Amino acid sequence: MKATIWAGRNSVEVQSIPDPEILNDRDAIVKITSTAICGSDLHLYDGYIPTVKRGDVLGHEFMGEVVEVGKAVRDLAVGDRVVVPFPIACGACSACERDLFSLCENSNPNAGIAEKFMGHSPAGLFGYSHMLGGFAGGQAEYARVPFADVGPLKIEDDLTDEQVLFLSDILPTGYMAAEMCDIAPGDIVAVWGAGPVGLFAIMSAYLLGAAKVVAVDRVPYRLELAQKLGATPVNFEETAVLERLQDITAGRGPDHCIDAAGMEARNGATLVDAYDRTKQAMRLETERPHALREAAMSCRNGGTISIVGVYGGLMDKFPIGAIMNRSLTIKTGQCHVQRYMRPLLDRIRKGEIDPTVIVSHHLSLDEAAHGYEIFKHKEDHCTKVILNP
């Protein structure tokens, strides 16, 4: 089969590799009809996630048709159309029983590596380094899906791939970001990063009752799309963000701040941006945490900081004093996708949320390298790339 593999920093290639096989009775093989390039894939592409190896198959947002099932898989059959969540979860451990699927205790065969980096291991993830399981990803023609009796969601109506594909990751992630804020009527929410997850966080914040949402980014076409979704745009290259948020909130600061930017946040042509980029390039810190720093300094006293942007290790100059002294609450985590898939599918069916508005490009799998480049460099008004094998 053809698959998108990591070929080194800033390089991916589409190569022919062996087809996946059933390795466990709870496996399924899925023939992929649609897959996507995620913002967190760019952290792999840029070389900032450890334990990625040349030849690793990328991608964790995918869906398709079941073509083979293991003997223990009872609720899926050949021919079923499914969306596959990016965290791999057993469904039976202590974490899964509490719906904390991205913390599954049984799905990461390389837990020992993750423990050295993080203290404890989270779940295994598709296409996201050997530290998180070394599982082949979904930017391919076929994928092996472990614990297929737990994860995949059957799509049994005529909704298009484009409408349901993002149930695999970014729609639940954006929704969880807003849910973690415990939004009350009248609240103001600020979102750093107007990429796909940030846009879904904006939609979700309004669904959950926010009175106003502010989008902080630097790319004009992304801010324009955020504005179409009802957000007040703030371009951090043109405006002092803290001052603008003070103006918008009558001096109190946003009630809730969502970091949907993560480890490669930018701060324009500033000294602190150059500092973080230099330290990251020299591997003296793994993150560029400007968005998170700014969220912490902006949030109102007693407010909430919700972090769904991906971080990989250690950051510098984090304002813990502001967080402690001003009673800020931090909530974070890789999304527990399985918890949200069916409720969000119902919202899509009812027309309460339209995931298709973020899609800018449909490409063939053979064009994956081009997709990564335009997505990374914000070319051709690229907001989201779907690859069709």
Automatic annotation (TrEMBL):
Residues 196-264 form the Alcohol dehydrogenase-like C-terminal domain. Residues 25-153 form the Alcohol dehydrogenase-like N-terminal domain. It comes from the Bacteria. The keyword Manganese does not apply. InterPro entries: ADH-like_C (IPR013149), ADH-like_N (IPR013154), ADH_Zn_CS (IPR002328), GroES-like_sf (IPR011032), NAD(P)-bd_dom_sf (IPR036291). Its cofactor is Zn(2+). This is Glutathione-dependent formaldehyde dehydrogenase.
